[in-house]
User: Fold this.
Amino acid sequence: MLCFYNLQQKIDNGLGGLFERHGKFIARHPWKTVIVVCIIDIAFGIGILKLKPESGIHQYVPTDSTASKDQTIVNSLFKINTSVNFYIQSLSDLGQYGEVIIEMKNGGSIMNFSHWNHLKDLYAYVNNTSIVDTSGTKYFYPDLCAQTGGQCVIGGSFFFDNTFILDMNNNKIQYPSYNISTGQTLFLDRFIGDVKTEGGFISHASAIKFRFNLQGEKFDLSRKWEKNLSKECHHLQIVI
Assistant:
């Protein structure tokens, strides 16, 4: 026991002496210590600013995992330019996008044409949401949107299609699958929420969703626009 006691005393005395010298140094040079600490903090802060945010699979899997390596291989073999040739099913990750959900607050159905002017106002508001880069250049959503055939790819844009509006007014919106005017079949559960049906057609729905897809090639600008959209939507008030 005496051996362990002596060992403890040596450790305590050694550490105590170290902290004593450290305290005396700080007491003699307080301003120098503060300045050095501030310089170190600033240096580490600059490093944090340069960190690149991760998205998709990289947030959940270990570095150099099989899933991460497989995704890298897929991206190298199948290069997708989302600014001209965007197809969501071809992405190897979740992609970049901003989503806006519009929900009825009074218990009524949103599937009523009387609400469509409000939806158009919201749609235009998002398209006109902008950011400014470090050079002062302003970018609106159409400047950063993922495109196919020269058109921005926006999930839910079919809500403004004349055929959809006509079917809605006649209570003929099939659910869950619906054929839009282009001939494409969509599953509406991705875009319309809290749905009630009668005879396979929508009779009531409380919410709809728009997905504004963004270019992966302009990652930093797209991420900045996405954050700005989130901030702007907090101040947006549209009464439906």
